[in-house]
Structure formats: C-alpha cells, structure tokens
Write a structure and sequence with these properties.
The chain is 72% helix and 0% strand. It is mainly alpha-helical.
Length: 430
C-alpha cells in the first residue's frame, strides 16, 4: 500500500525529473496506471472511429474491409513501439513536438508540431460531429423526434464542444474520472453487445469478412476502405502527451501506449465482426450506406437498440474529451516554448485548477471553425487522418536520424535495444 509519504516522495522525484528539461511542475500529477491507459484508449476509441467511417469502408469493398483493421494495426503497432521508447526518454507534454525538438532541433519540431496541432484540432472536430451519429438515433429511441440532419448534427457538436471544454478547464482529475468510467462502459458494452450480435443475430455467417457485396477489390478501393481503420488507430501517444500529469511517466506512459493500441485492436475487431455478421442484407447495406447504428436498430428491439446506442454515445463522448485534453496539452507545450502566436496567454496555467485555460479555449474555438461549413463527419475525419499520419512520419524520420547518430546512449525504462534502429529504419522508409 502506498503511503502519503511515499506519494509525496514520488511526486518530488517526478518534479525534479521534469526540471531536468527546463520546466517547472505546473500541471497536476493526477493520473495513475489505469487512468494513463484509459486516456490513450479513449483517444483511439474504436467505437468512435468505426461509427464515423464504417459506411465508407463498407461502400468500397463490402464486409471485406474488415481486413484493413489488422493490417493498419500491424503497422501502427510498430509506430507505437517506437513511441513507447520515446515516452520513456522524454516525459514532457507534447509527444511528437517534444520528441522532434530533442532529436532533430527546434526548427524541425516547429514544423512537426504545427502539423500535429492542426491534426489534433481537426480530430476534435471529427469526433464531436461523430457523437450525433449515435446520439440522435438513441434520443429518437427514447421518444424524441429529431431528424438526423447536418444542421442537427452541427448543433449537437457545438453543445458537446462546450461541455468538454468546461470539463477540461476544471482539471485532469475530473476528466480522468469521467474518462475511466466511459472506458469501462465502452469495453464491456462493445464486447458484450457485439458478441450478442454475432451469436444471436448472425445473418451472414462467420465468413462474412470474405464477402465484397459485389464491389471490386483493387489496390485503390482497398486503400480507400482503409481510411476507417487509419482514422481509428492513432492517438496512442496521448499517454505521452499527458506525461506531466502522470505519476512515474517514464515507466507508466510506455505501458499505456502499448496497452491502449492492443486493447483497441482486440475490441474493435470483435465489434467489426459482430456488426458485419448482423447485416441483414449486404447489398442493401452498401446501397443505403448503413452504419453501425442502422445495423443495431435492424436487429435489436427498440429498447435494447437504444441502450446499445447510449453506451456507444457515452464512449464517443469520452473520446471527444480525451482528444481535446491531448490537443490542449500539445498547444500548451508548444506555447511554453514560444512556438505559437499569443504563446504567453496559451502557456499560462491556472494556479487553482492547474489547467491551461487559454489553451483550452483556443482549441475549442479552432475546432469550431470547420463547423461553419460542415458537410459531414467523413470529410473532416479524412483530413485529420492525413495530417496526423504526416506528423507521425516526421516523428519517425527524426527518430531514425537520431538512432543512426547513436541515440539513445543509455536505455530508458522501456527499451527496444538493438531492434530500435531496424524499426526506425523501416518506419522512416514507409
């Protein structure tokens, strides 16, 4: 059992460790092992990304788009292994921005950080407009009469953005409580309901993942269908971005990075298979651009369909919360290094709430801008995905350069050893 004296000693150790990077402890270290994992897992949030672009994948190559999931996971797991080692060496708010700064210099980090920040802001927008895709059908199941129109989606997205901004302003401890609860519901809800779908409402058989619904499978269509998986499986570096609010981050952040991506892969695979197996008619599903909400409603009774959609909506909400949290910390980290306009205001931390209020408001305002010309969640999600992968690529290039120069001189709490150079070379060339 950890005593108060022990916690105080650990806190002093983490504060002294942060001081080695030239920063003082302003954010509150409130995240333990599970919370660090949960915030990274909820950023990935398989339910959120799947709800956003499920119809896109299905429309291009039918249920066979399932195979984009393990393919993208395999590639991203290699990135996650690289990022886990970086996390153990640089436990500072900002992940890709900070890593590139220490490995490739401030100018390179400025470029990588701006791309990563833009991707984070767009991802916030993408997830707040995803919530209505589950929430509006759920509200209709509760007796409300709400059309699933772009205007109603935008209105709900704005309300969601306001709520998560207030929660983020009031501190990471509150965020972690909401987030931890939501992650538990997401894991249990997605697995249990998906297994029920696959077992009791299996219209297509176990081999549904080999069907194309008559759609041609080419390199181009497979790549286009892959955007769903690409949009889901990123954000595992969030555990690193929140390193200054995590206890013993050199050890805990790498664990959370890897646990979040592996957990999301397993749960997402179960959810994908369950929903694909439960499609009543594949050709109709492709023609009508069916998503998980429509598949759920086509199989469950109105009551259980509503329950399921509410669980998914809760999962998407905590995803919104954690993605905004991560983006705020990135903006704070960049502003603290004077890399942004109005850096002084954006880097200011409330002495009572221990949160960067200016950065919280700025991220919310920037995330709201794309809503002015809102044309659907898919467009925003695809833009966010492209930019996030570009920033990851820049991070991998910086790591490759550093490894070729002999980094790291000493192994961190998590170390790839001799595999690190080969892994960085492979990631830098792809």
């Amino acid at each position: 059992m950890t005593t108060k004296a022990g916690l105080h000693a650990d806190s002093e150790r983490d504060t002294a460790d942060l001081a080695k990077f030239g920063y003082k402890q302003e954010l509150k270290r409130a995240l333990g092992t599970f919370s660090s994992f949960a915030v990274a897992f909820s950023y990935i949030s398989p339910s959120t990304g799947i709800f956003t672009l499920y119809a896109l994948g299905l429309g291009f190559i039918g249920p066979a788009f399932f195979w984009t999931w393990p393919l993208v996971f395999a590639g991203q797991l290699l990135v996650a292994l690289n990022f886990a080692e970086l996390s153990s060496h640089f436990p500072v708010a900002g992940s890709v921005f900070q890593w590139t700064k220490y490995l490739a210099g401030r100018k390179y980090a400025w470029f990588a950080g701006w791309i990563y920040l833009a991707a984070g802001v767009l991802t916030v927008t993408a997830v707040v407009v995803t919530l209505p895709l589950a929430m509006i059908p759920a509200l209709n199941g509760l007796g409300f009469a709400m059309e699933n129109s772009l205007e109603n989606q935008r209105m709900m997205a704005v309300v969601t953005l306001l709520i998560i901004t207030v929660l983020n302003i009031y501190g990471v401890k509150l965020v972690s409580i909401v987030n931890n609860t939501g992650v538990v519901f997401e894991i249990l809800g997605m697995v249990v309901f998906a297994l029920i779908l696959g077992a009791a409402y299996n219209h297509q058989g176990i081999g549904v993942v080999t069907q194309t619904g008559g759609q041609p499978v080419t390199f181009g269509t497979f790549t286009a269908a892959m955007f769903m998986s690409l949009f889901v499986i990123y954000g595992f570096d969030t555990a690193s971005t929140l390193a200054e609010e995590t206890r013993d981050p050199r050890r805990e952040a790498p664990k959370a990075v890897l646990a979040s991506i592996i957990g999301a892969f397993v749960i997402g695979a179960i959810f994908l298979w369950g929903t694909l197996a439960a499609i009543p008619n594949v050709a109709d599903a492709i023609k009508n651009a069916m998503g998980p909400a429509q598949i759920i409603e086509a199989n469950f009774s109105p009551f259980w369909a509503t329950v399921y959609l509410l669980i998914v909506a809760a999962a998407i909400f905590v995803c919104c919360l954690s993605i905004q949290t991560s983006t705020i910390r990135l903006m704070f980290g960049m502003a603290r290094d004077n890399q942004l306009p109005f850096s002084e205001s954006l880097a200011k931390v409330s002495p009572s709430l221990h949160t960067p209020i200016g950065a919280s408001i700025a991220v919310a305002v920037l995330a709201a801008i794309p809503l002015l010309q809102y044309a659907g969640a898919a467009y925003i999600a695809i833009a966010a995905t492209g930019m996030i992968y570009l920033s990851y690529f820049l991070g991998n290039l910086a790591t490759l350069r550093a490894r070729l120069g002999g980094w790291p001189k000493k192994p961190g709490a998590f170390s790839l050893g001799g595999l690190g150079a080969g892994l960085a070379l492979g990631l830098g060339l792809t």
